[in-house]
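Appendix B, Record 12. Input sequence as logged:
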Amino acid sequence: MSRDQKAERSHNLETDNSSFEKVEEFKYLGTNLTNQNSIQEEIKSRLKSDNACCLSLENRWSYSLLGKDMKIKIHRTIILPVVLYGCETWSFTLREERRLRMFENRLLRRIFGPKRDEITGECIKLHNGELNDLYSSPNIIRPIKSRRFK
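Logged structural output:
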């Protein structure tokens, strides 16, 4: 792949009896690679896969006998690995970081459910600070950064 955007698109790599076409993007070991080294599409793809995983678990999330501890274990063992696959190669910006945090907070709100107001009795959505207090593990960005350092 070339960094020169003005380069001709018809350049092919030829070896012995094989010819390799120059492409804008391709999938390698389940990860989308682009000539722009952009991970926006990769994160979008990971979150889409994770949403499909969450939808397959939908009836289990609403099962009342399943405790919050078990839901958190499911989150850590099934859902997070889907999102974090290949994250060692990501070089994300604040925009992608915010997108991943929003995704995780949405999932944690689903796990912990709404909070009932003591005075009015209404159900209130948990705020991000309250979610951080309830969920003892670090946010999704810390494992990504630690994997990159390894």
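Helices lie at 40-56, 58-61, 68-84, 94-112, 128-134, 141-149.
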